[in-house]
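re: ur msg from earlier - yeah i can do the zinc ion complex, just paste it... oh wait u already did. ok heres what im feeding in:
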Amino acid sequence: MSKIFDSHSHYNDSSFKDDYKEILQHIQDSGVGNVINVGADIESARLAMKQADENDFMYFSAGIHPHDAIQARDEAIMAEIEEMLKHPKAVAVGEAGLDYHFDDSWSPELQQEAFIKQIKLANKYHKPLIIHTRDAMQDTLNILNEHPLESGVVHCYSGSRESCKQLVKMGLYIGFTGVITFKNARRAIESLKVVPLDRLLIETDCPYMAPEPNRGKRCDSSMLHFVAQKMADELGLTKEEVIRITNENARRLFKIK
Ligand SMILES: [Zn+2]
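and the outut:
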């Protein structure tokens, strides 16, 4: 039977510091086969790499989140990120993208510059880009049209169905989190239904986005059972089919045997 593939997690987050070993054992006992540990700035990318080195079932990505877009202007940081991509367990660049949700974040211009730099880096190393986009879909689409990606995933999808169709047309995968289990998830569910089965991923984005009935708690990959079940219910599949399909998709995208 297939195991769960968590395509987006942050076990490098400080909220896992106290029970890190126990939680990694717990998620594997619960049927999770692999996780991608995502870097979001230089410090978290370093830790993601170290943790992936220590755990067979874990892979990592290195990149700069829009919240830390200024780091992408630092040549030493970008050189170090590039060096990390040569690590055998570095399977993606990111997370990178645009986030206009908060008024006090970096300017759209600075965020766009960091995003484009990382699109180029992903293409250079033939690795997928993990894209974060929040309240910035039109600019995200424009940039991806101007700077086509070889491969990538839009994680924690929160946009419209129409935008989702455009992203799929570009060849991208779409990742869904515990958000699809929330009561107000109508938009995410509508989008879910237009994604071809071979482009679907499940992810926790843990420690955030815990699915119902654990909403508000610290999330971990074992909770993907709820996400897979909800996805199965909406798509007329079994939970086991969703787990198998999303596992195969993640392996194809991240080039993991
Ligand atoms: Zn994330």
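cool cool. The first strand starts at residue 4 and ends at 9. ping me if u need the other ligands too
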